[in-house]
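Handoff note, outgoing to incoming analyst
You'll be picking up this chain. Sequence as last confirmed:
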Amino acid sequence: MKPLRRLFYKPLTSTLTVTSINGFHLRPAAKFATEAKQFLCDIHIEFAQKRVNAKAVNAILSLNLDRDDTFTLIAHGKDAKKAIEILGHTFSILMRSESDPKQIEKQNTSYQSPTRSGEIISEGIAVGSLHRFTVREVAHASLCSFEEALKESADELERLYAHSKKDADAHIYLAQKALLLSLAEGIDTLEDFITRIEAEKEGLKHGRHATKIADLNDLLYRIKKQMGYDYEVSLPRTPFILSADDLLPSQIKILENSTVLGVVLANSSLTSHTAILLRASGIPSLLLDTPLNREEEKVILDAYSGVIVLKPSPEDLILAFKRQNADDKFQFEIHQNRFKPALTQKGEKINVFANVSDLASAREAKEEGAEGIGLLRSEFLFKEHKPIIRDQVKAYREIFDLFEDVTVRTLDVGGDKALPYIDIPKEQNPFLGIRGIRLLKTEPKLLEEQFEAIFLAAKNRPIKVMFPMISTPEEFSEAKSFALNIAFEKDIPIDNIRFGMMIEVPSVLFALRRFNEIVDFYSIGTNDLAQYLFAIERTHPILKTDPASPILFDAIRHVMGESTRPVSICGELAGDTRAIPQLLETGIRTLSLSSKRIAQIKDKVRHV
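Most recent structure output, in case you need it:
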């Protein structure tokens, strides 16, 4: 803000208190700073005689604000009054939404050999040899400039955020991106970035948020990798239990692709991003008070009882294997039954289909027990370049060959999804602009080629084509007529093709009787439907929708009551075991979900 203009405004202040047990850490700080940037005024936070810029994530973190700490929010400028009011409300929401880390109740198990107790990060049991985690940095010639590395690292975090399935994971990446951009402000070289990172780490070292140093190291790691650095991580090919002081959040992906059986950490916390990602990965993990500096020694990692058993006796091993086998047997039985139909307790068959993006994910769906494809996200088939018709036909045909029942969603880009070869003008509200079937207005040639490819690939098979973002019956009729004209012009018989639509725009709820006359089937996209019902963008850093909201279920019941056509669910709600009883109660009989959830969802259905 210009200094002269400041003279005409009086600074406004507000006193706020941190109530979350986790303190004012990275995720809420990133959301707070993002919100603060919207206001045309200077905004600062003052605590312990230190004043920092509230629009900079790293500056907020440097205060090490802990639970019960009270700080002063100061706004000076044109939007000061609005900023104080809205940011105060935002802070209150952030504190309420920050739940205490759940202490997992430990089971009581008596082992004969010495044990080390710890806190449970992720439940499970493993028996194996300890391997101490080491990583070696190897510098190579620079592949790109710091500016290019920064952009690619930020884009990578954005992609991880967009593709993350679990909410906790997604907001980790969004918070890291905000921190990265804040740290890199005014920086032009890797050397200067390293200097800033070291200064930030020094500020966190002795505070409660010392475990957040891993996030800073992770950002530096990402930048360096983009610039040509290699990181040699030596992991055994045989199954092992990893011992480490701490891990970077990005290193969890390395473990997921290894033979790791379990993880033991020392310098971390139950609320660290590393711990959150370990829980999401399902790797049995413990947090000890001090490092476990042992190598190649067989141990029992019991993340049910919260202990690691050192030099286990034969009796200890027998006990551990029994518990492990009981756990494995349960998971094994669920997996073994994945190809069996999902029948409710009353014997009613529920169709369990998969959401897929390409041939590889379609093959995975087949292996995981999917009975069909309820959602083929066609926009992911050709992400990097515009495909020619021949390539499209081949891609569709290979997927159609795997299943008898396939639903193809036509290109769904816009909003938070983009393709490099589609130029969608920048819009003030992209989620309310050109996306989904509205591409007919701007990219008719692209959709013409897609329809031709789908029709040619179908070749007399009963394929279903689904239009996204339909809001009126007229819009559906226009899209269907467009598709029929393509078939007529290209002389392709399509008696085998059925045309349906996504239910994700609330206006559809009020016109279902008219839609019934022209639509062959419906698929409820609960993610976008919730977004538009509650007017909360799915990627919003602060506001969140409740995926189990009674309002959303009321909308589903309304669809089931009004529809005379088949209805399925293809949003994330279909893969949530907690939601299955309610979904079936609404009358839904077809679920389409992530392949990895199929076995669990079928098992859940069998117990309803």
